[in-house]
C-alpha cells in the first residue's frame, strides 16, 4: 500500500518550533501497517492482532528535519512481508515528496490470533450474520443512531488519484475523524 500524507498545521502547533513530532510518525506507521496487515489477502479473517514489535528509525531526511513542517507532503510505502498463522510482518518507508529523502523507516510485527470467538464471528461464513447483528444493535442505541452517524470504511476514507495499476492512491480522511491534533 502506498499513500501521500500532508502534514496538517494543527498536528505541529503544540510542539517545539511547530515541527511534526517523530513520535507521530511512529503512530502513523503503527496504524498504517496494521491496516495493511488486516487488508492483506493472506489474512483471510482480517485479524488485527496485537503488536509485539514496532521500531521506527530516522533516515537522513528525518535527521535533517525534512518532512516535519506543516504542509509538507510525505509518501508512506507499506510492504506486508509475511502473514502466517500466528504472526504478521510489515515494513514501512516514509519519503519526502519534494526531495525523495527518506524521513524514516518502520518495522512492525503482530501476533495475529484473536481467539476462537473472533475467528468464528469474522470467518467468511459467519461474517454476514455478525454484520447483521451489528446493524441490529446500532438501531437499539439510546438515542438511536441516525444514518448519518453510521459510516462504513468506504465513507470514512476517500480514495482519489488511483493509479492505473491500482498500486497507489491518495487517501483523504474526513475532518471529523481526525484526532484532537487534527491528523
Descriptive overview:
There is one protein chain. This protein has 183 residues and is α+β, with helices and mostly antiparallel strands. It has helices at 22-39, 60-63, 116-121, 127-139, 153-156; strands at residues 2-6, 50-58, 73-83, 87-96, 102-111, 157-160, 170-173. A five-stranded antiparallel β-sheet has the order 1-3-4-5-2. The longest helix is centred in the first third of the chain and has 18 residues, at 22-39. It is globular. The two termini are 19 Å apart. The mean pLDDT is 81.
Mean pLDDT: 81
- SS-based class: alpha+beta
Low-pLDDT segments = none
Count of helical segments?
5
Q: How many beta strands in the DSSP annotation?
A: 7
**Proportion in helices:** 10-25%
What gyration radius follows from the Cα positions, in whole Å? 18 Å
Shape: globular
Strand content: 25-35%
Q: SSE order in H/E notation?
A: EHEHEEEHHHEE
Q: Between the first and last Cα atoms, what is the distance in angstroms?
A: 19 Å
Main β-sheet description: 5 strands, antiparallel
If strands are numbered along the chain, what order do they take across the biggest sheet? 1-3-4-5-2
Amino acid at each position: 500500500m502506498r499513500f501521500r500524507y500532508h502534514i496538517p498545521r494543527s498536528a505541529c502547533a503544540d510542539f517545539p518550533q511547530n515541527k511534526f513530532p517523530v513520535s507521530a510518525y511512529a503512530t502513523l506507521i503503527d496504524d498504517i501497517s496494521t491496516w495493511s496487515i488486516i487488508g492483506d489477502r493472506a489474512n483471510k479473517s482480517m485479524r488485527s492482532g496485537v503488536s509485539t514489535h514496532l521500531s521506527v528509525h530516522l533516515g537522513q531526511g528525518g535527521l535533517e528535519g525534512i518532512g516535519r513542517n506543516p504542509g509538507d507532503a510525505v509518501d508512506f510505502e507499506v510492504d506486508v512481508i509475511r502473514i502466517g498463522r500466528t504472526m504478521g510482518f510489515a515494513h514501512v518507508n516514509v519519503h519526502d515528496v519534494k526531495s525523495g529523502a527518506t524521513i524514516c523507516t518502520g518495522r512492525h510485527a503482530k501476533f495475529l490470533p484473536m481467539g476462537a470467538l473472533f475467528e468464528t464471528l469474522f470467518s467468511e461464513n459467519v461474517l454476514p450474520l455478525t454484520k447483521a447483528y451489528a446493524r441490529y444493535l446500532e438501531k437499539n442505541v439510546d438515542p438511536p443512531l441516525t444514518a448519518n452517524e453510521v459510516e462504513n470504511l468506504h465513507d470514512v476514507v476517500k480514495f482519489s488519484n488511483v493509479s492505473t495499476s491500482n498500486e497507489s492512491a491518495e487517501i483523504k480522511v474526513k475532518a471529523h475523524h481526525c484526532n484532537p491534533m487534527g491528523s
